[in-house]
Amino acid sequence: MKINTLINKIINFTKMVIDEIKPFTIEFKGQSLTVSEHYIGEERIFRILFEDKRKPLTLAVGINSQKQKFWTSIPQGRQEEAGEIGPLIAWYYKEKKK
Fold this sequence. Notes:
- This protein is of the alpha+beta class.
- It is 36% helix and 38% strand.
- The chain contains 2 helices and 5 strands.
- Strands 1-2-3-4-5 form a 5-stranded antiparallel sheet.
- Strand 2 (31-40) and strand 3 (43-49) form a beta hairpin.
- The longest helix is centred in the C-terminal third of the chain and has 19 residues, at 79-97.
- The model has no long low-confidence stretch (mean pLDDT 85).
């Protein structure tokens, strides 16, 4: 591996760690969800932790063929939860800007 490639990987990892934002809480169907924002390269993702025994959920915003944004789970398979929880995350950020 070239030294420049290694250095770039280290820099990108460091940026990802530094850019992490403090987790916040949103309410969903009677429980508090802990949401943390992360970056993988330049891709913004959200990790959701549930109070119950459900596995954590990772969300990202996708763009469909009509250029419309939508919330998706990573990996795919939990689209219903993504469609319900994603807008709550967007609402949190809109309210935070006020």
